[in-house]
Design goal:
By secondary structure, this protein is an alpha+beta fold. 19% of the residues lie in helices and 48% in strands.
Length: 185
């Protein structure tokens, strides 16, 4: 059983027991399953809320494998009020980013949305490998400041050799073949 299945099962049991009336699911979604080394990959962090629920603030930490990926940038979406009407902050490290945001002037931008992007961060693909993209922690609060029961869905990202790597290999093999041919001739 995966950690995603365990978290989902725990949230379902709590909801059935009536212990968690309000629930939210937060998910790490790479915009691609595979990325070439030397490129960047945007990763969306998306929240799904119960119908009629509003998100007032959140704080979360996400990690990745630093041998293959490195932090590039982060941008917030406007569903908690945007930069003019929200406290927004992030701190990144060699293998993680910690993000928090609090709505200061209401949550009207969430009207009609049960699912929306909180922020997008971009990672550099530095080497070949498979990296988990995991929540270390995720705390979400409704518009009144009450904590929400959170189900966090992790993901993975695979970095593969880019076309430049293949072109270099083909060039090297071509040069080696030319030299071998000259030696024989």
């Amino acid at each position: 059983m995966t950690s995603r299945s365990i978290r989902s099962a725990v949230a379902a049991v709590l909801a059935l027991a009536g212990l968690a009336a309000q629930a939210a699911t937060v998910e790490v979604r790479p915009t691609a399953d595979y990325v070439w080394t030397g490129n960047v990959v945007p990763i969306d962090v998306v929240v799904r809320l119960d119908d009629g629920e509003r998100l007032g603030s959140y704080a979360m930490a996400i990690t990745w494998q630093p041998a293959w990926l490195s932090f590039n940038s982060l941008s917030f979406d406007g569903f908690l009020g945007g930069p003019a009407n929200a406290d927004q902050a992030y701190v990144f490290g060699i293998s993680s980013v910690i993000v928090n945001e609090t709505a200061l002037a209401g949550t009207a931008a969430q009207d009609g949305h049960t699912e929306f992007r909180l922020f997008r961060f971009v990672l550099n693909a530095n080497a070949i490998g498979v990296s988990p993209l995991e929540f270390v922690s995720a705390q979400l609060f409704d518009a009144d400041g009450a904590p929400l029961s959170v189900v966090a869905l992790d993901s993975t990202l695979t970095t593969v050799p880019g076309p430049a790597t293949g072109a270099l290999l083909a060039s090297a093999l071509g040069l080696a073949g030319t030299r071998l041919r000259r030696r024989r001739g």
